């Protein structure tokens, strides 16, 4: 499989204020672990051995430190490469990915994950479907949970990735 995972960990998470005052979004603690540990674990479970983490210059030092601690905490041998993007108003995910591709560091197709992905979906299965359909882009989407009505939320509180595989397939969306 010629696929290189890229983890987007450079977002500011301005909507999470005041939580993001002390930590970058990728390092916000969730279940006693930094948020970025969860997509890293997902990549490992799908047999990826290397990942490039895109991070902004402001958070580079703290995210590198967390990545250095990850193998010890997760009993992992995954390799990390960081790619620094400099803070500016024009820096977004598309600009960061274009800069990474232009750097020549990536020679294969990309699997792009956000640092806030909490899922157990089979990335290999998604990739195989992508190849089979000869898609240019594949997206994994889930139905959002209702936001205001607590009665409706209780009825639909199971996220899509927690459903059985048969039911989960309806959430794959392919663009050819």
UniProtKB/TrEMBL annotation:
Question: What function does this protein fulfil?
Answer: Acts as a component of the translation initiation factor 2B (eIF2B) complex, which catalyzes the exchange of GDP for GTP on the eukaryotic initiation factor 2 (eIF2) complex gamma subunit. Its guanine nucleotide exchange factor activity is repressed when bound to eIF2 complex phosphorylated on the alpha subunit, thereby limiting the amount of methionyl-initiator methionine tRNA available to the ribosome and consequently global translation is repressed.
Instruction: List the signal peptide residues.
Output: none
Q: How does it assemble?
A: Component of the translation initiation factor 2B (eIF2B) complex which is a heterodecamer of two sets of five different subunits: alpha, beta, gamma, delta and epsilon. Subunits alpha, beta and delta comprise a regulatory subcomplex and subunits epsilon and gamma comprise a catalytic subcomplex. Within the complex, the hexameric regulatory complex resides at the center, with the two heterodimeric catalytic subcomplexes bound on opposite sides.
Is Protein biosynthesis among this UniProt entry's keywords? yes
What's a Pfam family this protein contains? NTP_transferase
* Family to which this protein belongs: Belongs to the eIF-2B gamma/epsilon subunits family.
Instruction: Give the Gene Ontology MF terms in alphabetical order.
Output: guanyl-nucleotide exchange factor activity; translation initiation factor activity
Q: Which Gene3D superfamilies match?
A: Spore Coat Polysaccharide Biosynthesis Protein SpsA, Chain A (3.90.550.10)
**Record-level GO cellular component terms:** cytosol; eukaryotic translation initiation factor 2B complex
**By what name is this protein known?**
Translation initiation factor eIF2B subunit gamma
Keywords assigned by UniProt? Cytoplasm, Initiation factor, Protein biosynthesis
Question: The Nucleotidyl transferase domain covers which part of the protein?
Answer: 5-144
Q: What is its main location?
A: cytoplasm
**Entry keyword annotation includes Repressor:** no
Which GO BP terms, alphabetically?
cytoplasmic translational initiation
| Localization per Swiss-Prot or TrEMBL | Cytoplasm, Cytosol
């Amino acid at each position: 499989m010629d696929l290189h995972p890229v983890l987007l960990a450079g977002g500011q998470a301005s909507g999470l204020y005041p939580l993001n005052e002390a930590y970058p979004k990728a390092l916000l603690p969730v279940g006693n672990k930094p948020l970025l540990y969860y997509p890293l674990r997902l990549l490992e479970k799908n047999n990826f051995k290397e990942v490039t983490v895109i991070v902004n210059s402001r958070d580079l030092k703290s995210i590198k430190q967390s990545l250095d601690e990850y193998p010890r905490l997760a009993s992992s041998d995954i390799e990390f490469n960081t790619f620094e993007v400099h803070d500016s108003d024009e820096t977004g995910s598309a600009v960061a990915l274009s800069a990474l591709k232009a750097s020549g560091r990536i020679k294969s197709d990309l699997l792009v994950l956000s640092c806030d992905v909490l899922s157990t979906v089979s990335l290999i299965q998604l990739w195989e479907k992508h190849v089979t359909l000869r898609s240019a882009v594949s997206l994994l989407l889930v139905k959002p949970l209702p936001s205001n009505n607590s009665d409706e939320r209780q009825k639909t509180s199971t996220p899509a990735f927690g459903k059985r595989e048969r039911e989960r397939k309806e959430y794959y969306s392919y663009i050819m």
